[in-house]
Specification:
The structure is a homodimer of 202-residue chains.
Chain A: H1 13-31, H2 38-45, H3 49-55, H4 59-82, H5 88-99, H6 104-122, H7 124-150, H8 160-179, H9 185-197
Helix pairs in contact in A: 1-2, 1-4, 2-3, 4-5, 4-7, 5-7, 6-7, 6-8, 7-8
The structure holds a DNA duplex (30 and 30 nucleotides).
DNA sequence: CGTTTTCTCATGCGAGTGCATGGTAAAAGG
DNA sequence: CCTTTTACCATGCACTCGCATGAGAAAACG
């Protein structure tokens, strides 16, 4: 929906905010959450500190913006996976794989996500954002599980919601060990397939 | 093994270091990883900044010390669980439960652990410490799974190592969602039992 | 005792922090 | 034209940071 603007200086605010959010992402990824500062982000975004302050009045607000953009990004990626319209079970598998740090881009996303997981425990606003996004992800998983059950690819006695929670927890829990180099991408994929195999319909 | 000391001022270095590490833990828990500073930790430990610097020359070293103490602490807790000598399957269940944020003390430990998971992605030394501790935990899990299999409580066709990885990943992955308030402790325990139920021997 | 070694402290330094402020260019409306 | 609104920038302020330094207190040894 187009905003009814506004007299002077035609500037796309959403674009600017996304630009800032992505700069925050890069800083978190490259130098960690502790290196995030207004100056550092401004430099990374190629704009002055005052310009950043114009769109984001406080550091906490800046981080919250970056967190929300992560959520949007994940949503877009998962929607793209869902659009493939393959077998329900393959769809489920691809969805989980999309969230795992199996290549550079997904590692990039997971580094940032992990940083926010830790940060959100201490920051109430970030925790609220997490509580908002989590049910969406879990219901997305559960829906795909139910579809696979309906298609006869997953056992019907499975509790879709619980399986969704377990599957998502597995995906999140394997992230650090993988980023730290304990698992190879192949091993992670093998673990997922091993787990999914037992959910198959007999 | 007792250290051969040393002339003056009888001071237990290990005790001092543990004292500092625990102060770091409290700061991370209460105010987050970003609030950890030499001054803040010194104040929390009730000692001067210079005293802290005597035992720990740099901030990174201080964090590494705190991380290693977390590993030791977890090891002690798990050893205590293992000492209960109940049924192999109950032992496995209790071991996982011990790592989940189901009460205040375990939440305390998990907050700190989650902070270090994020931090270790950016800090090489911390990552190395993680890579050192992970196999121990996983083999601990795997061993208990094998024991349960030998006791006829878990299906023999299960891959103990993979099950251990999945179980541990589940435990780690559920942490943030629980700390953020998405799951109640009861729901988490129910999820674990739901998962373990399918591993039962027929 | 005094010497030696261990331990602790206060302080300083340069750099970086979040945030506020005042000023200014630019575009649209009158 | 001039005014108004938007967008941006440079700078200042009070504070904190990690770390280094040098002095001094405390305890064992001669």
């Amino acid at each position: 929906m187009r905003k009814r603007w506004a007299m002077p200086k035609i500037v796309d605010h959403d674009d600017r905010r996304r630009h800032i959010a992505e700069a925050v992402h890069r800083v978190i990824h490259d130098r960690g959450m502790e290196s995030v500062s207004l100056r550092e982000v401004a430099a990374e975004a190629g704009m002055s500190m005052g310009a950043v302050q114009y769109y984001v009045t406080t550091k906490d607000q800046m981080l919250l913006l970056a967190l929300e953009h992560i959520g949007v990004w994940i949503g877009i990626r998962l929607a793209a996976v869902a659009a493939r319209r393959s077998t329900p079970l393959d769809l489920l598998r691809d969805t989980v794989l999309e969230l795992l740090p199996l290549d550079e881009e997904r590692s990039y996303l997971n580094r940032i996500g992990l940083a926010f997981q830790a940060s959100s425990v201490v920051d109430d606003d970030q925790a609220a954002a997490m509580r908002l996004g989590l049910p969406l992800l879990l219901s997305f998983f559960a829906e795909q599980i139910r579809a696979a059950q309906a298609a006869g690819q997953l056992a019907t006695h499975l509790d879709a919601d619980k399986e969704a929670s377990i599957l998502y927890a597995f995906a999140q829990g394997i992230v650090n060990a993988t980023l730290v180099g304990h698992y190879t991408p192949e091993e992670v994929a093998a673990l997922l397939d091993y787990h999914l195999a037992r959910l198959h319909a007999g």
